[in-house]
Amino acid sequence: MIKLIRFVKLFSQEDFVMFRLYAELTAGSSKAVYKDFDNDSFSFKLEETEGSIKGIFTAKKDMTMSKFILKGDRNFDGEDLFYANGYQAWTTSREFSKHDKFDGLLKAAKISKFTAHFVGMSGDYHFEEYGEEGKFHGYTYCYFRKKGGKEITLYGSKSERNGYTIFEVDMKDDDFNIKKDVEGLALNAGQEYEMFDIAIISGEMDDVMDKYFFDFVGCKKPAIDHLSGYTSWYNYFQNINEDIILRDLDGLDRASEEVNIFQVDDGYQAAVGICHCKG
Question: What are the E-state strand segments in 50-191?
Fold first, then answer.
């Protein structure tokens, strides 16, 4: 069974994505691969609403999941850009074209096995693939944009409590996949599990982001519209002292009307490590 989902209007054209299901699981002692939406082990129902899709998985027997992917076809040309949201705050989030390549870890981090392993723990570098032209992935939300265009189409998960939602593209082969991180997930017969609840929103960047984060996800709107300021970390890392901080604080006088924040980051401590304090 192949499920057809009609996506929202994209760049003045109707954009269609044909999704195919791919699931790996173990039931009892048997490992199996499924490519249909309704079978002897589970059923999967996609519900399309205005601007979103929701996917409900219902187990028909006790099982342990390994993979669950909706594999889609989407045409990419040289003008298309894909925004990949990084694994966490220390990983790269940016737009990519089909001719770009992202190697993951910086070369400097690979000077030894120790540094590669240690730095690799700051992201998904130990369990995801990097380095192939046109292939990229991101977490929780992504968007597509034309080069020079102001409009984007965003696909974003409402919640990651049931596991990461991973958006993958192979822009060379016109693939767009939505994957749920379900490895090791145990389900009982008759149990329902929400795989996806994904918003699909088109428009200009600020409007789309507001609708996604505030209206769909339910994030609280900030008390002020704009924040700017200073942090010591990206200038000095841990190598700060009182003279540096006071000098930079004085230096911000000329921009005092625009500055909301002055952040003193790591390096202010007398020592680094476990505090063995008395009293």
Answer: 52-59, 63-73, 80-84, 94-96, 135-139, 141-146, 151-157, 165-170, 175-180, 186-187
